[in-house]
Task: inverse folding
């Protein structure tokens, strides 16, 4: 059973991702190390004792749709209420509307725990958080006053309604339409698919954020507006009243995250008898500027999805490590006890577990560093603010894509450590594997994250920001190499090679973009993102070993340097030398 | 929907794996190219038209156990009968007992198709095939006469009963017991788990091959005997009669292969009222030599499991390619048509599809080469026989582990190409991902395959056999490099680097083994197996491009060389330089 790794999370926040320095420098108001520790401890307790036991229930007893209403997994409605009452939903919410205004670092740290304990459950507040942010930034004061207090407290939840059957990655193709009503509101019509928690019984009301086109909107993404469409229309006194014309038509049958309802939502199909047609909506931000508003929400959602990868990886690692220490098969030279050896003594099993552990810690570190950058951007001004915002921009696609890719890889290794027991559902290793798989797809596929990294993030500050980041990685690795820690010099030399690979690949892609060779840059995007994560990851493990030079941390860093960091050589080769062959062979895939 | 790639399979058999030369040299009796083509065409038709449409039905409507009897997926019983009547079960069976005595190459080629169409269905005859082989090699003439004709025709099916709760990878721990009866038969007692098709309604009778210990047997694997235990005892005239005391107690709830019943089997628990206790069994081979008999069966089963990986990968590639040519999202420079581009035009999607295609073709090639070696060993004598047997031994763990690993990887990429549609079960991409996962586990986990490759196969012929194989790979790549085919020289140079990496890693492991540094060799086993497959794979793609220098084949070989073969550098680094760090870090994983 999952136990929240509170100490490791606290260590990573403070000593790898920069929270300790920010606190020491007084950058985060009156937040103290003691308060951080207290919050993490209580979150760890709640995740371990209250959420985790109900996680598997959701996998086996998913939500049921009947007459337009969704009944969620037994116990989850009550769990959600206790969770929200515990203040976990309001952690980072704006103080003006009842939130605690704490840093994003605490939000991602606790989010990791909820995701480890029950990713399908954690999805609901993840979306609410995005809605809070979008409304706080872009909605009118009247909308904020009506909706934000309830969304911040978690009494109501939020959803994102983007995808339509023909419009997934490409929102240009969006068809949902909005009409202006005489009273300044709008009427929304159309179908949205894959809407997570589009309908549920956790809360009295659901606040849908919906992308749609006005009749006179220009074509493409510059003609999309964002609307707030509540499930229940809210009376003047703030009470949810009559039913709006938005309904859940069906639930998807999915590979994983069975506990979360994935809804097809129908807007304005006249389900509400006797009412004017159309779902009543309110404009958020300006007309035709909805995509910009949605991107606010999506960027932070991307980091949040990265934490799904971290959470699954941590849960899978814990499960596999416990099994490997219990299960006995065969002989092993490291085992002198009676009978068969616990399989943790077999070198091949150790390779799997160490690979899982290294990936998990790196993904956590990169994600927390990204959150730190967001926090620093919020409390900075001028050039410093730009610096931290660019840092967050740079790390967001890496945190999302790498963490979710390794979420699946680590969960797969977790199955493998379990052998045949991993393939039967009762151990729970398979459920983690099924749950993890979606995170590489939604909130922008990992291919799109890689394209975002290459085409939008490498050019930041005329290409200088990324090289500044790489120089920081190199400095960390150099400090580790000179630390005098046993074995550090050799490990640092290998990690430094990865940083050199990252530098060369970065320069190559920047020169391709500068030359207008977009396709050749795009061809290398996915291997580049992985290379970026591994080079950064080596520096993260080195920083951890510098802060805490325990034999375990130093050994893990060395293992990574000798057994995982070498991949950057071939990844660099793909980025720098693989594009032409890819594009030439790719033509033969086109039908006809 | 899957369409059997009959032409590609025929090409790989003949021009990559060596069938054409063997036929030309008359090594395979009166088998002709025309007969091979006719068999493949008819198998392709049956797999495409008859098996594939019922594949998804099995995923959604798995077998049901009631009162000890299993009812399989609707339509599968009839499908199995038609399949067996078509002669597909008897393809390679011994002619003496009604088999067609065709080469293993045809068996693996058709097995790939059944696995693509419905892996859970194909599992049943895969196990029967193993039982036929074990009985043909090790059983008494009386047992052969009674059981082989029915097993060869497919009227009865076979199972393998090895695993017990405490004995998975390590058969030393086996506890099932056998007692000698006065009439020369035995009584078997015990519980076996994970027994594929241990109970079903396809056939009148089921022939269980069961490992158990005699009361006076030595401890460990030298005290295990193999028994034949029929579900129904066979009368003197060969008719199945009264029920034997072996029953299915429960079915597993699994991640995938939902169509196949995975049974817990209870032997000798007195279910048969009024009869003497114990399941009646007959000894196969000698007492206490059961493991050797089982290994005959297991080696070929390992190759067969490799074909599951190939079959899943092919099905996933076809599905993803079709989707990528239909689904439209975004703009792409290669697309000049109206509206959004089919996603096959996006470089990142091309990378995924080409990676899938290259892995699939390599896995097929290595598996077919392994089958070719088995066929040549059967028709050879003396040193040549030893050569081919060693070749088959060498390639078996690679065919099993690499093919099944890439089965999961390719199925995962297949989901990713589908985006959100890949995560919902209706597209079938997710089912392939779920089915594929078991193949890396059963019939010896892939970690065990790697250990087998390193510790048992590298030492063959005092270490010379593997270097002879590597020299053949190098010769193929050299011929490709000198072929004058456009781009071949550059690609060959990169493939040659992989072969150099393989040579270095092989020599390192051999020297570790010679020095008694077993743990350091074992630590590198898994990366070594992958390195082996990639180096061999490059030569396979080069051989294919030499035999058919079409732009598509040459381009795929170049893509592989530039974008996939480079991994051998870091894999070599792990094998040669990763062990000490792994073993040092591994110690920290041990609890307490």
Result:
């Amino acid at each position: 059973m999952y136990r929240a790794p509170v100490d490791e999370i606290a260590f990573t926040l403070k000593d790898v991702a920069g929270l300790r320095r920010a606190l020491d420098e007084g950058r985060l108001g009156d937040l103290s190390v003691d308060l951080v520790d207290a919050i993490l401890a209580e979150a760890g307790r709640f995740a371990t004792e209250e959420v985790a036991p109900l996680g598997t229930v959701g996998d086996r007893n998913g939500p049921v749709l009947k007459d337009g209403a969704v009944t969620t997994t037994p116990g989850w409605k009550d769990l959600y209420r206790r969770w929200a009452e515990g203040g976990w939903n309001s952690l980072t919410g704006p103080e003006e509307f009842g939130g605690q205004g704490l840093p994003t670092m605490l939000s991602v740290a606790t989010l990791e725990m909820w995701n480890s304990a029950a990713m399908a459950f954690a999805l609901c507040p993840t979306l609410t958080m995005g809605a809070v942010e979008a409304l706080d930034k872009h909605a009118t004061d009247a909308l904020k006053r009506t909706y934000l207090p309830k969304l911040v407290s978690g009494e109501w939840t939020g959803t994102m309604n983007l995808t339509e059957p023909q419009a997934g990655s490409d929102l240009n193709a969006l068809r949902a339409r909005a009409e202006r009503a005489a009273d300044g509101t709008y009427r929304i019509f159309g179908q949205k698919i894959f809407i997570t928690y589009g309908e549920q019984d956790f809360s009295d009301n659901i606040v849908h954020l919906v992308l749609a086109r006005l009749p006179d909107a220009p074509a493409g993404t510059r003609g999309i507006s964002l609307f707030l469409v509540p499930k229940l229309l809210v009376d003047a006194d703030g009470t949810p009243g009559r039913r709006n014309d938005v309904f859940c038509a069906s639930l998807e049958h999915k590979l994983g995250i069975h506990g979360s309802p994935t809804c097809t939502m129908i807007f304005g199909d006249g389900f509400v008898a006797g009412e004017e047609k159309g779902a009543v909506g309110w404009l958020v931000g300006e007309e035709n500027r909805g995509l910009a508003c949605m991107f606010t929400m999506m960027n932070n959602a991307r980091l949040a999805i990265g934490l799904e990868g971290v959470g699954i990886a941590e849960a899978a690692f814990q499960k596999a490590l416990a099994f490997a220490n219990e299960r006995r098969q065969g002989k092993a030279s490291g085992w002198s006890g009676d009978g068969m050896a616990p399989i943790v003594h077999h070198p091949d099993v150790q390779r799997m577990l160490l690979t899982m552990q290294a990936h998990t810690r790196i993904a956590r570190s990169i994600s927390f560093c990204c959150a730190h950058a967001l926090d620093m951007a919020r409390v900075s001004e001028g050039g410093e603010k730009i610096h931290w915002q660019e840092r967050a921009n740079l790390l967001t696609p890496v945190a999302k894509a790498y963490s979710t890719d390794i979420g699946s890889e680590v969960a797969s290794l977790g199955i493998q450590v379990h052998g045949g027991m991993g393939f039967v559902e009762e151990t729970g290793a398979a459920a983690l594997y099924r749950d993890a798989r979606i995170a590489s797809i939604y909130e922008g596929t990992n291919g799109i994250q890689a394209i975002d990294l290459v085409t939008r993030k490498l050019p930041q500050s005329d290409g200088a920001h990324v090289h500044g980041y790489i120089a920081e990685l190199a400095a960390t690795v150099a400090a580790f190499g000179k630390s005098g820690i046993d074995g550090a010099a050799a490990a640092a030399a290998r990690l430094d090679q990865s940083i050199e690979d990252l530098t060369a690949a970065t320069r190559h892609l920047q020169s391709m973009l500068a030359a207008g060779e977009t396709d050749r840059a795009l061809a290398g995007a996915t291997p580049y993102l992985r290379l970026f994560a591994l080079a950064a990851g080596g520096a993260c493990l080195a920083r951890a070993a510098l802060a805490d030079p325990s034999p375990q941390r130093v050994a893990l860093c060395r293992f990574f340097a000798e057994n995982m960091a070498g991949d950057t050589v071939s990844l660099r080769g793909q980025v720098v030398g693989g594009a032409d062959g890819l594009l030439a062979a790719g033509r033969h895939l086109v039908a006809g």
